[in-house]
Design a protein that fits this description.
397 residues, alpha/beta, Aspartate Aminotransferase, domain 1, Aspartate Aminotransferase, domain 2, 2 domains, 7-stranded mixed beta sheet, 16 helices, 14 strands, globular, binds pyridoxal-5'-phosphate
């Protein structure tokens, strides 16, 4: 095991070592973290539903009705009426014929890509796609080709380079909202490329659903795209919906194929039915309470105006994900620690989660924040700026 110790030592030396913090409270604007009350801008609980009283009550009712464990895989006896109802409601929400639940977004992506592509096929992915999309392609044994971030022309070049009559499957997969940058994929252009070249398009809208579009229908609704253009939609339930799990939505043949072939659907225990009951409630709230989306938009606007006035290195993002790129892992950690000393929690995101040289603070907003929270964050960032050597800040800018 000596080489493990060496590997860990190297991670520490290069500021890439990670460890989980311990929360002693629910998610919210002010969680209790490692024994300390912090103003936090880290979670993906964008709508503030992870600790909503009605969602908690639904979880308890679900436990009373179904117990805790589902007891088996969906295809054995684990598929409850709660799961079935949630799948139907997710199909209605996404305006697609069918939806299929997975235990996590990671498992949904790995399952769908490896079910649809195999040896001899090709999977095309944005360079900044979520790790689970990349892992799905690796597991599928298809050839994985990564195109420049948000660049439909680069993708088009790759696809047209070898218009194959061999009839092998070609799948394009992209985040809808990029998880570490907060920008939107150029979905209408990607859909055109897919159409022209006969490739399938998969959009993983983990950070768009609940937040963008009418009733929170996500990036596709925001850009006016439907199933004809994007046949495969992946959504997660642990972010804006505040619970846990994921789903794939699409046509009858897609969903039936996944039921027969997606190994991360078949060979795993179904999630607890009570979680499905809680998600049904959070989905209803997310659809109905558009004030949560409006509040988010207002907080994002306030933050961006304030950060621009401070000359902070903002990225081109209109979503609740507002990164400040620091460059080195060491710099990102030092910013994060300075904020922590002021009672503010913002996580430093380092390689390999983001490309080398683009370590950053990933600031996220939630409908549970208010204007004063944003102002406190801006004050703290201003102070951080004063304490930075000129050269470093100039480099960051
Ligand atoms: C978080 C995330 C996932 C994984 O979802 P989990 O339910 O947390 O496993 C997949 N794709 C994207 C883009 C994500 O941000």
């Amino acid at each position: 095991m000596k080489h493990l110790a060496l590997g860990l030592k190297r991670l520490r030396e290069t500021h890439l070592y990670r460890r989980p913090r311990v929360l002693e409270s629910p998610q919210g604007a002010r969680p209790l973290v490692d024994g300390r009350r912090m103003l936090a801008f880290c979670s993906n609980d964008y709508l503030g539903l992870a600790n909503h009283p009605q969602v908690i009550a639904a979880l308890k009712r679900g436990a009373d009705a179904y117990g805790v464990g589902s007891g088996a895989a969906h295809l054995v006896t684990g598929h409850s009426a709660a799961h079935q109802a949630l799948e139907e409601e997710l199909a209605d929400f996404t305006k697609r014929p069918r939806a299929l639940l997975f235990s996590t977004g990671y498992m949904a992506n790995v399952g769908v890509i490896s079910a649809l592509a195999g040896r001899g096929d090709q999977v095309f992915e944005d360079r900044l796609n979520h790790a689970s999309l990349l892992d799905g392609a690796l597991l599928s044994r298809a050839r994985l080709r990564r195109y420049a971030h948000a660049d439909p022309q680069a993708l088009s070049g790759m696809l047209e380079g070898q218009l194959s009559e061999e009839c092998n499957a070609r799948l394009i997969a992209t985040d809808g909202v990029f998880s570490m940058d907060g920008d939107l994929a150029p979905l209408p252009d990607l859909a055109c490329v897919a159409e022209r070249t006969g490739a399938w398009l998969l959009v993983d809208d983990a950070h768009g659903l609940g937040v963008l579009g009418e009733e929170g229908r996500g990036s596709l609704d925001h850009m006016g795209l439907e199933q004809a253009e994007v046949p495969i939609l992946v959504g997660t339930l642990g972010k804006a919906f505040g619970t846990s799990g994921a789903f794939v939505a699409g046509g009858e043949e897609l969903i039936e194929t996944l039921i027969q072939r997606a190994r991360s659907y078949i060979y795993t225990t179904a999630p607890p039915p009570a979680i499905a009951e809680a998600t049904r409630e959070s989905l209803r709230i997310a659809r109905r309470e558009s004030w949560r989306r409006e509040r988010l938009r207002e907080l994002i606007r306030r933050f961006r105006v304030g950060a621009a006035a401070l000359g902070l290195p903002l990225m081109d993002s209109g979503t609740p994900i507002q990164p400040l790129v620091a460059g080195t892992a060491e710099q990102a950690l030092s910013w994060s620690r300075s904020l922590e000393a002021q009672g503010i929690l913002v996580s430093a995101i380092r390689p390999p989660t983001v490309p080398e040289g683009s370590a950053r603070l990933r600031i996220t907003f939630s409908a549970v924040h208010d204007e004063r929270d944003v102002d406190r964050l801006l004050d703290a960032l201003a102070r951080l700026r004063c304490h930075l050597p000129q050269a470093e800040m100039a480099a960051a800018l």
